[in-house]
Amino acid sequence: MGPTCSSPGAVWCSKLSPDTSRAASGSADFTAKIWDTYSGEPLHSFPHNHIVRSVALSPNASHLLTGGQEKKVRMFDLRRPDAEPDLLTEGSAISHEGTVKSVVWVGEHTGVTAGEDGIIKWWDLRSRTVSTSLTFPGPITSMELSPQTNRLVVTSGKTVSFIPALPNGNQTHSLTLPYAPSSASIHPILQDRFVTGSMSDEWVRVHDLSGEERDVLKGHHGPVHCVEFSPDGEMFASGSEDGTIRLWQTTPGKTYGLWQGNQTNGG
């Protein structure tokens, strides 16, 4: 077992830097923290006025984006951790009209934020201004960046949308499911399927890109808050209200990592 990074409040999100030497976390103790992943020690702690729901590190780990219950998006310069953060707004005191559900960093100079107000905003982080936005008919429940496919995977109501990470004229691919997903993740290599969790039951589902259900995986004992494929697409993880994280093989029975032969998938 590696180093443990301990936070006094429930941790809502965590992200690794590209070189894995640093981790960022946002938590219910109203802070965002930067950690040394080798020692498990906190390097910086940034106070907020409410729960931090999402964090994102820049590609060179020099800056941190945060968002959460305050409806504000902040950008911290990790080279000057004692300096006041930049606040990303459009002339008002807040960044979104609802809780900021997700922040992601795309390329060198773009931050993307999603809120319960149903709006996704692309920010030019050099000028701290919005370059474009996209409005959904209802609150956004999750948004994750798929770096391998260069797409954002967004859930809102019963819809899953696959959106170019940087607006480039390519069309958004959206599907309506018979249930409301809490989170979704696309296969990073094959790009022919995606997995979802849901707050309405305890199952993890696999769909193809037409929306057809391929598989239903049972093992959790509470609603499934989040799902994500591994970078190589060989497995995916699901996190549940039952307090567990389960790992599922994309190809059950394949020898891979800790799986040797016909072990129970998700066990």
UniProtKB/TrEMBL annotation:
PROSITE patterns recorded: WD_REPEATS_1, WD_REPEATS_2, WD_REPEATS_REGION
Keyword Repeat recorded: yes
SUPFAM superfamilies named among the record's database cross-references: WD40 repeat-like
SMART domains, per the entry: WD40
Keyword set, alphabetical order: mRNA processing, mRNA splicing, Repeat, WD repeat
Pfam families: WD40 (PF00400)
UniProt-listed InterPro entries: WD40/YVTN_repeat-like_dom_sf (IPR015943), WD40_PAC1 (IPR020472), WD40_repeat_CS (IPR019775), WD40_repeat_dom_sf (IPR036322), WD40_rpt (IPR001680)
WD repeat ranges, renumbered to this chain: 4-45, 45-79, 93-133, 217-258
Family statement drawn from the similarity comment of this UniProt entry: Belongs to the WD repeat STRAP family.
Descriptive protein name: Serine-threonine kinase receptor-associated protein
